[in-house]
């Protein structure tokens, strides 16, 4: 099942059976309730998506993939981990509800084990809770919260887990993060209750799934090469290297009478020049970024001064003035164009 497919399988049992489930007088998912979940035909196939950091994903995969292999075999659920060198990854768990609960139990206990291991090396005495982040279509979050927060309150009280639904949707998607934290047992009970809500209230309309983006990596120039930093390694970046070398060729030679002829260009910094760009108003936001984060990033990476003129009435364009050495200007232009390209092609944040 691809990430773009429907998030929940449609094979849901008739509503009458479900409504008896949700109004069951028992607040806890006790033994009786559990058997009712599978006997009542609620044992349908569904998919739950989790958002994890790289370190958490590493823990789930294990050495040579042994941990995730064991989880797949013992739970009977399909567990897929999104590709990529992103700081965040999506872990998709698909299967009958009982297989999903088993997979969740194994993940929650694995995370608890990681917490215990990390505590053995630290002076902390109180054990932090296990935390999992679910990714849920926004159209289902209302049912999960309930009228005036009644449903989420009921889930918190009956399971002892903390549950929080993010106010904003995840970037470029129609999904929200739901954070669950508590003991592994509380988390398992909580996931069971969330599954029931999900099955009762399928998503409305199409869901655009959240796909984590690679982190914007810093760029370093050394010995005429451009490198991007990934983890602990500097990886050569051919596009930026070409650009960097082109920019360096435009650098004028130092004036005659240079004190250190063995290293031309070392003492005399090339004169600053200015370059102007015009950008459509509706695209200026992607260059500035939230609270100016993107434009500051471009300033830092390029070393150029970048000024964005205020919007003039009746004009659909904004003027950008870039000042610096030819190398700085070329790099700033490259980074601005990269932002624009990603926005126009719908790739969102680079």
Concise description?
The protein is 41% helix and 22% strand.
Please characterize this protein's 3D structure.
With 350 residues, the protein is an alpha+beta fold. It has helices at 15-22, 31-42, 54-61, 66-75, 97-119, 138-145, 150-159, 184-200, 238-249, 281-288, 293-302, 326-344, and strands spanning 45-53, 78-81, 88-96, 130-137, 162-165, 175-182, 219-222, 225-230, 233-236, 273-280, 305-308, 317-324. The strands form 3 sheets. It has a 6-stranded antiparallel beta sheet. The chain has a 3-stranded antiparallel beta sheet with strand order 7-8-9, with helices on one face. Strands 10-12-11 form a 3-stranded antiparallel beta sheet. It is elongated, with a radius of gyration of 27 Å. The chain starts with 14 loop residues before the first helix and ends in a 6-residue tail after the last helix.
Distance between the termini: 26 Å
Average per-residue pLDDT, rounded, comes to 77
- Proportion of residues in extended strands: 15-25%
Following the backbone from N to C, one meets helices and strands in this order, namely HHEHHEEHEHHEEHEEEHEHHEEH
Largest sheet: 6 strands, antiparallel
What's the total count of β strands?
12
Radius of gyration: 27 Å
Fill in the keyword field for this structure.
three-stranded antiparallel β-sheet, alpha+beta, 22% strand, 350 residues
Please describe the topology of this protein:
Elements: H1 15-22, H2 31-42, E1 45-53, H3 54-61, H4 66-75, E2 78-81, E3 88-96, H5 97-119, E4 130-137, H6 138-145, H7 150-159, E5 162-165, E6 175-182, H8 184-200, E7 219-222, E8 225-230, E9 233-236, H9 238-249, E10 273-280, H10 281-288, H11 293-302, E11 305-308, E12 317-324, H12 326-344
Helix pairs in contact: 1-8, 4-5, 5-8, 7-8, 9-12, 11-12
């Amino acid at each position: 099942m691809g990430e773009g497919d429907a998030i929940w399988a449609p094979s849901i049992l008739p509503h009458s059976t479900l409504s008896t489930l949700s109004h069951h007088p028992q607040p806890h998912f006790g033994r009786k309730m559990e058997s009712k979940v599978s006997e009542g035909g609620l044992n349908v196939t569904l998919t739950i998506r989790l958002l994890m950091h790289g370190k958490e994903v590493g823990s789930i995969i294990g050495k040579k993939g042994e941990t995730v292999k064991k989880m797949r075999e013992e739970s009977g659920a399909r567990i897929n981990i999104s590709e990529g060198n992103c700081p965040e990854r999506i872990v998709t768990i698909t299967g009958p509800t009982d297989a999903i609960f088993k997979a969740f139990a194994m993940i929650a206990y694995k995370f608890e084990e990681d917490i215990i291991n990390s505590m053995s090396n630290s002076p902390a005495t109180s054990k932090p809770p296990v935390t999992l982040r679910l990714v849920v279509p926004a159209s289902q979050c209302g049912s999960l919260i309930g009228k005036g927060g009644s449903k989420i309150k009921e889930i918190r009280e009956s399971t002892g887990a903390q549950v929080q639904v993010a106010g904003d949707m995840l970037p470029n998607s129609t999904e929200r993060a739901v954070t669950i934290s508590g003991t592994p047992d509380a988390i398992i009970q909580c996931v069971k209750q969330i599954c029931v809500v999900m099955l009762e209230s399928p998503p409305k309309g199409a869901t655009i799934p959240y796909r984590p983006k690679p982190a914007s990596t810093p760029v370093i120039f050394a010995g005429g090469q451009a490198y991007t930093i990934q983890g602990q390694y500097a990886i050569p970046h051919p596009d930026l290297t070409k650009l960097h070398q082109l920019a360096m060729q435009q650098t004028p030679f130092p004036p005659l009478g240079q004190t250190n002829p063995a290293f031309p260009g070392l003492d005399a910094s090339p004169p600053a020049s200015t370059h102007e760009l015009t950008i459509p108003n509706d695209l200026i936001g992607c260059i500035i970024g939230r609270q100016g984060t993107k434009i500051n990033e471009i300033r830092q990476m390029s070393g150029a001064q970048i000024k964005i003129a205020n919007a003039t009435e009746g004009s659909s364009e904004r003027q950008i003035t870039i000042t610096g050495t030819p190398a700085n200007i070329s790099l700033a232009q490259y980074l601005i164009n990269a932002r624009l390209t990603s926005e126009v092609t719908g790739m969102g944040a680079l």
